[in-house]
Amino acid sequence: MPHGLARSCCVFSKSRPKSCFRTCIRNSGKISYSGTVLLPKTGFPQRITGAKRSENDEKIAKYACFEEHYAWQRENNTGPDFILHDGPPYANGDTHLGHAVNKILKDITIRHRSLKGDRVHFVPGWDCHGLPIETKALTAAESQGSPTDVRCKARSFASATIQKQMNSFKHWGVMADWTKPYRTFDVNYVTKQIEAFYDLYEKGYVFRDFKPVYWSPSNRTALAEAELEYNADHVSKSVYVAFPIVKVPDAVRSVLPEGTELSALIWTTTPWTLPANQAICFSPNHQYSVIRTSTTRRHLVVASDLISHLHQKLGEELEVIATFSGSDILSNSSYTHPLYPDKELRFLPGDFVTMEKGTGLVHSAPSHGFEDYQNALKHGIAMEDCLVDEEGRFALSCRPELRGLPVLTEGSDAVTKLLANHVVRTGSYTHSYPYDWRSKQPVIVRSSRQWFINLDDDMRQRALSCLKGVQILPESARTMFENQLAQRPHWCISRQRFWGVPIPVVFQDERSLTSREFIRHVCKLMNARGPDIWWTATDKELLPDEVREQLGVCKDAALTRGQDIMDIWLDSGLSWKMVLPEPCQADVYLEGLDQVRGWFQSSLLTSVALTGKAPYRKLYMHGFTLDAEGRKMSKSLGNVIDPETITKGGKDLKKDPAFGVDVLRWWVAAHTSNHENVPVAKHVLAECQENVAKIRGTLRFCLGALSDFDHTHHVLVYPEMLPLDRFMLHLLYGFHTRVTSLYDEMRYNHACSAVLNFVVNEASSFYFQAVKDRLYCDVEASASRRSCQTALSHVLDVLVNVTAPVLPHLAEEVFYHHGDPGKYDTGVFRRAWQPPPREWERPEFSQLEKPLARLREAVNKAAAKSRPLLHDVKIVSTSGDSHFASCLRLLQPEDSAIHSGLTDVLQVASVTFEQVDDLTVLADSDKAVILDTEDEKVLIALEPTKMAACERCRRNISSEQGRLCTRCEDVYQRLHFKWDALKGDANAEEQQDKVQTKSRT
């Protein structure tokens, strides 16, 4: 509104001049000028109520053809390809906020790139195999069934889930190749994966071995590191056990009384592994002592550094008899197993032995520990059969007292009881322990025959070398990634389930067989009949004579097909090879921080093995959603927030109002793109809603102001525009450059802050306020009005384009309501967006920014509680060429003016530049402020204006009360001749109205 102008009930309109005329002259005989004021006019709603938000989102998506955007930009954009490879979500349930964060961040990225003219490649995918889906299929079936039954039900479940998730992703406005998504159960994906498996096998990366792996007793399958989650509150049974030493050096024996028994004291939190003990490890670089306990009078060997710690744990005095180096006392010593006294075992040096806790002697069971296994191989100790079965129970080969007992519970107690005479102390120990991420049950480490990908030192170093060339956001995650990669053991890729990609090998006794010809034959069968043929085909179909010959076995040889399937991390880890165009390298992978040990790592390892390079140029990692109290969302806590409830509202809209899709997207961009975990709460969403409403209000003002603006005929070229409007274009250029750079850097939260700052401070409160008088009260087709409309059209263009990646529905809604079809009939994402011309950036306007901001602040401070529009402003300096005044004169070259860029910006009656010798003479006024500028002091003084308020524009620039100002008088006179011509018609129309009213009565 210009300087307090009251809102009119109508706007002067070319379409209804008679009605506007009547509005202007009917006011109890007094002329009303409200109909001569050109107020904004648009059908674009200020707000959309909660009940209509979802309906409006769907209408806009349909009108703008959201689902066709992807194909359109692939065909019409002329820029380079930009590849964002979609990490496949798991097809086992409804969408949640984590899905929304991930998919919307990806969509913001690709929409920005599409607007820049790049040809975006984004194929959505789903991870379809694995135990959770198989378990749900079995639950639905209520019985085990055959492998093909399980696979059929699992496939059906995954397919239904994919469709539900896809519908949610589309509802959120995600632009993707929805016609050709990739699904890891599709036959073309499965066959390519089988071929890639053989490529790895042929290169020597795949091998089969009997070695320890993480094992889930609850799901009876091997697990990879990425399938674990750690429970920090797990409680294990803790025991100190003495192993009798049967052979020690003479130097040690000499310090002991004749016939004294000496034992090695070990500490473990896995007593169930003690029956499988094959060695005790020590640190060759530390001292060890022979001690005597005060109560039991046992003689024990422990690390010298831990004697004080053991004194507290054992609860008795410990007397040191002698101290030796670890090598001297233990290198040539041996001990017996308490459960197998006739079994003499060795002490082994171990680099992994530390002095942080325990006894400094580590019980070693190579069948149940990764370091134990490696150390045993190093010292030539043969692996023994595993004493624990697939269900996590002691096997039949164990002692009768242990057979069939679950090792983590009753089995541990039973072992402790068997070792009673050798147990020094028992207790409980709370620590972080690995759990199966699916069943949420503890896992164990047990040896079994599995397939692995070789991750030796050379392979890990090559992967680390490739990772150095990858940009990682945030950079702080690089160290975590490198550490996990450097410490990763061989990758166990086999699983003992049905729902997955079969490992394509056959066995002759224990010898595994496969070949390129066999792989081609299997893939041919699968392409013809589907992946289930691995379980349904006859031996003759799967292994015809020519394949047997190529495998090197006779026609009648007994062969069995492998029953293992591949780890689902191998499924998704090879997706770069299945989905990406050559050379199979994406511009960016964008996933949660947890994928450092998951998809990021599996993709890197497979790509380095097969191509020698990383499959991505950039990694972007986002955090996770938490509830308002910072807790992880889970069904058990009842704190899960459904994205559909946010966008469409709950059953009770008062309790759970509908915020709409764009508010959800704004929350994602503004709050989750800082790489940290983020809480979500209703007050946060309400704040996002208000922020989107501010942007909406700004766009609405522009639309209304441009209702009579024709871009073909009314746009002014840059030199013809007024200085204030050119200054706004300067600000607009800087804003666009800054936000574009933030989008390029994927700093979407900062981009949102920049947009909000521009909307609130530079557009609404600064420029819009400054041009309302011109926009509403100048002659409709005047150069001054067309100048600010030209600037507003550019503001609208830029603002729509910089918000469109985050708020696509709002951006397309602007196009839907725009009154200039020649410019806005194609849609936001279907027009060639040109960045602002460089001529908008002017060094003189850069110098104006700070002085103008200081002047506005000084005027508001001097005005205090009074209204600036009632005052004249004086800018007083002691020299005529001060930098401060020179900058301000860009907006007002005259010494004094009532119509200038400065009067518009300051919202005052007039602005006058003066020069005096001494500022102190004027500084006593209570409405004066002295500013220290770069070269001198400047006085800003406000004086009550002597001019009267204009009846039309309400500015205090009229020569006398009740009169129009000069500008408004001129506008009125220009319009008056039109009204005279219409006055007779209007009177006739009034008489006709009265007759019709009387007739109806």
From TrEMBL:
Residues 73-676 form the Aminoacyl-tRNA synthetase class Ia domain. It is found in: Mitochondrion. Keywords: Aminoacyl-tRNA synthetase, ATP-binding, Ligase, Nucleotide-binding, Protein biosynthesis. InterPro entries: aa-tRNA-synth_Ia, Anticodon_Ile_BEm, Ile-tRNA-ligase, Ile-tRNA_ligase, M/V/L/I-tRNA-synth_anticd-bd, Rossmann-like_a/b/a_fold, tRNAsynth_Ia_anticodon-bd, Val/Leu/Ile-tRNA-synth_edit. The keyword S-adenosyl-L-methionine does not apply. Its EC number is 6.1.1.5. GO terms for cellular component: mitochondrion. It is an enzyme of class 6 (ligase). It holds the Pfam family tRNA-synt_1. Residues 725-859 form the Methionyl/Valyl/Leucyl/Isoleucyl-tRNA synthetase anticodon-binding domain. SUPFAM superfamilies: Anticodon-binding domain of a subclass of class I aminoacyl-tRNA synthetases, Nucleotidylyl transferase, ValRS/IleRS/LeuRS editing domain. One of its GO terms (biological process) is isoleucyl-tRNA aminoacylation. It catalyses: tRNA(Ile) + L-isoleucine + ATP = L-isoleucyl-tRNA(Ile) + AMP + diphosphate. GO terms for molecular function: aminoacyl-tRNA deacylase activity; ATP binding; isoleucine-tRNA ligase activity; tRNA binding. Belongs to the class-I aminoacyl-tRNA synthetase family. NCBIfam families: ileS. This is isoleucine--tRNA ligase. It comes from Rhipicephalus zambeziensis.
